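Q: Two folds, back to back.
A: First:
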Amino acid sequence: MRAAPVTEQGDLIRWVELPGAEPARVYLHGLGASSAPYFAATAVHPLLAGRRSLLLDLLGFGISDRPTDFGYTLEDHADAVAAALRAAGATGVELVGHSMGGAVAVVLAARHPELVSRLVLADANLDPVVPSRRPGSSGIASFTEEEFLAGGWREVRELVGPHWWSTMRLAGRVALHRTAAQAAEGARGTRPTVRELLLGLTVPRAYLYPAADGAAQLPGPGVLLLPVADCGHNLMLDNPDGFAAAVATALGREAAA
C-alpha cells in the first residue's frame, strides 16, 4: 500500500500499486466503492498486465482518510488525486474511471492536463442528476446532509443492497453525502458540466458502456464509444474479460479528433 498527503491538514490518499512499465495506469472507483475490489482483475488481466498500475481510493472512500472538513466536490477530488499522482511521480497517466470516478477523471484531465495522456470512462456520470429516492448519488442527494447523518444512511443501505454496501460502508458518511450531493442539479453541480468538459478535452478519450443500454445518451464527437456485452453498470465485475478487452482497445487507438 502507498499513500500521499493531499490536504493542508495532511489527509492521506492511499492506493494499491502494481509495478510495471511507464506511463502509469490509474484506476478511479465510483461512488461508495474502492478501486482494488473493482479493478484488481482488470489491472492484472493478460490484455492489460505489465503496466505500473495505481488502484487509488478517493479521499473519503475505501482505504483513504475520511476528513469531515473537505468539500468533496468533483474539483476537490480531482485536485486531491492530482496531488497524490505528483507525489507518486506519475505524469502523463492512462486514466480509467468508473461512474462517479469517471467524472472525477474528466475534471482531473481538464484541470491538470499534464497528468493525463489518455482517458477511459466506464459508464461515467456526465450530467447533473435530479435527487430521488433510488440507489446511487440521486438517492443520497435526496437527503440533506443533516438528514443523511442522522439516519438517512440506513435507508440508503437498504436501497443499495449488500454487495454495494460492502464497500460503501467503508466511506465516511460526510464524504459519501457531499460527493453525491454535488452531482445534483443546482449550485453544487460542476459548471460547465462534465459532459461539456469531456467534449472540450484534446487527449484521446473513450467511453465504455453496457451494450444493452444503447447509445442515446453517450458523448458526442471526438469520443470513442465502446459497448461491453453482458453487463450492467458495474462492467468490470459483470464481464471482466469483455471489460478488459474494451479498455485495451481504448488504450490502443486514438479517439477521433
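A: Second:
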Amino acid sequence: MCLKDMHLPPSALSSSLRIGNVEIRNRIALAPMSGVTDLPFRMLAWRFGAGLVVTEMVASRELVCNAAESWARLKNSGIEPHIVQLAGREAHWMAEAARIVESNGADIIDINMGCPAKKVTGGYSGSALMRDPDHALSLVEATVRAVSVPVTLKMRLGWDENSINAPLIARRAEEVGVQAITIHGRTRMQFYSGKADWDAIHAVRDVISVPLIANGDVDTVADATEILRRSGADAVMVGRSSQGRPWHAGVLAGVRLHPDALEIAQIFAEHYTTMLEFYGLQIGVRHARKHVGWYIERFAPNLSSADKAAILTSTDPALVSERVAAAIANCGVAPVREEMAA
C-alpha cells in the first residue's frame, strides 16, 4: 500500500538541496522529536516523501558508554541519507560519539542545541548550551573535527528574549565547519507557546552562507512557502504537525496527496504493527499509545470518550488496531487538495 503520486508541476519545496556533499531530495525535513520520530515513524515519513528525516536525539556520553537506548536510536533501515542527531555537554563525549555514529553509517551528524525540555536543559545540554556560546562552540568544533561527514546544527533563537544570540552562534558555527543550520523561531523559555517568529530567523540568514532550515508552526503548504519568504531559509523543518500523520512532510513537499480515510486507516495499522515489531509487544503497546492518541484526535475526533479510553488503556494489540482503523475509516476523512507553492 502506498499513497498516490501527485503528478503536479515541480515547486520550490520539491527541488533538491545539498548539505556538504550530501544531496537532499526535497526541501521539507522531518524534525527530530524524542519519543516520536523513532525508526518506525521515520521509515514511513521517508517512504511518503520527506526530504530528510533525523533520528531521535542520541545522548553522546550514553552512546559511548554503550547504553542500549542510545544504540537503538542510532538504527537505520535503508533511509539515505542517514542523519543522526547528537546531544551532550562535553566536547570529549561529543567527538567520541560522532566517531561512533560515522562508523555506523551516518551521512550527516546534527548537533542538538535546541531541545527545551527541562530534563535536557537541566543537564546543560540542548538549548541550555546557548547560554554559553564559547562552550557551545567548543562542542561544535570538536564534533566537526572528529568526522569527515557533514555536521549540522539545530538551535532556537536564544535562551530568552534578552539573549537572542542565534545569529552569533550560527556565524561562528559556520566558521568552524558546520554545513547547515536549523533555527526554531522561538526562544527556549517560550517552549512551544505563542507563535514562532519567522521574521527573526532572517537575522541568521544575513550572517551565514550555508543552507538555512526554518522551523516552527509549519502546518500547510502556504505556511511552508511563507516561512521561506520571511526567513530567507533554503528549506523547512516540520515537527508537531506530523504527529499522527507521518506522510505530512511528503504532502508539503508536493510529492504526495493527502490520503483518504481508508488509506489513513491502512497507514495507522501498518504504523502500529511496525512499532510492536520494533519494540516488542509489551513495550511497543506502551510506546504506541501517544501515536494512537494523535491518529484519533486528527481523524476520529467524534469517537466517544469511553471508546477512546478503552483503546488507549488496552493491552490487546488486535483490539487497538481494529478499533482505531475502523474509527478512522468510518469518520469519512476527505482528502485535502492544497495548491502547490510556485
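Q: And?
A: Residues 261-279 form the longest helix (19 residues).
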